[in-house]
Write a structure and sequence with these properties.
Mean pLDDT: 96
Shape: globular
Strand content: 15-25%
CATH class of the largest domain: Alpha Beta
Largest sheet: 6 strands, mixed
Structural class: alpha/beta
Number of helices: 6
Bound molecules: flavin mononucleotide
Number of strands: 6
Number of domains: 2
CATH superfamily of the largest domain: Flavodoxin domain
Radius of gyration: 18 Å
Amino acid sequence: MKVLGISGSPRSDATTAKLVREVLGAVECETEFISLAGKRIGSCIACLGCVETNICVLNDDMKALRQKIVDADAYVIGAANYYSTLNALAHCFLERFYQFRHREGKAVAGKLGVAVGVGGSTGDAVVQSIRTFFEYNQIECVGEVTAQGPACCFTCGYGETCKVGAIHNFFGPGTKITPEITPDLSKQPEKIEEAHVLGRNLSDRLKRFAAAT
Ligand SMILES: Cc1cc2nc3c(=O)[nH]c(=O)nc-3n(C[C@H](O)[C@H](O)[C@H](O)COP(=O)(O)O)c2cc1C
C-alpha cells in the first residue's frame, strides 16, 4: 500500500507542504511526497486525446507524475487558498485527472483521499474544492484538515504600510509585523494533531482494505 502526498502550492516548503507532510508522517505504510512548486503543469485543454487510452497527451511535468498517481492507493492532496479557491497549479494538476475518467477507467476510482487546505485566513474553500475533485473521480474522501499560513504581505516588505494588504485587513493600520503575529504551522498544534489523526485513519482504512483483498 502506498500513499502519494502532493503539495500544490507554488511555495515549495511553505504551510501546505508542511501540513501534507504531517498527514503522511502518521501514515503507517509507504509514502511519497511531491511538491508541485516549480513544475510546469498546464490546464486540461479538452483535446480528448486521452479518451481511447486514459493517458493524457500533453507534454509537460504531469507526464512523469501519471504513473505515480496510478500506482498509489491513496492521495493526500494539499493546495493554497488563492482568491477563495485552489491555487492555479493545484487546479491544473487536478484538472488533468480527467485522463482517468473515460470509459470507466479504474486508475483512481475507488481509492482514498485526504484534502488539505491552507489560507492566509482560511483553507475551507480549498478543501471543499478538493472534495469536489475527489467526488468527480470517485475517490473517497477520508477527511480534511485546514491551517493558516502567512500571506505574502508578511514578507513583501510593504506589509506594514500597504493599505490593501493582509496586515491592514487582519490587524488594522499601524500594526508592526512581528514573529508573534506571523502565522506558522508550529503555532497550530491542534491542526498538526488533526493531520496525524487523519494519517492514522487513512492507514487503518488501507490496512483493512489490504486484509480484505
Ligand atoms: C495570489 C494570491 C491570492 C490569495 N488569496 C487568498 C484568499 O483569497 N484567501 C486567503 O485566505 N488567503 C489568500 N492568499 C494567501 C495564501 O493562501 C497564504 O499565503 C497561504 O499561506 C498559501 O499557502 P502556502 O503557505 O502553502 O504557500 C493568497 C495568496 C496569493 C499569493
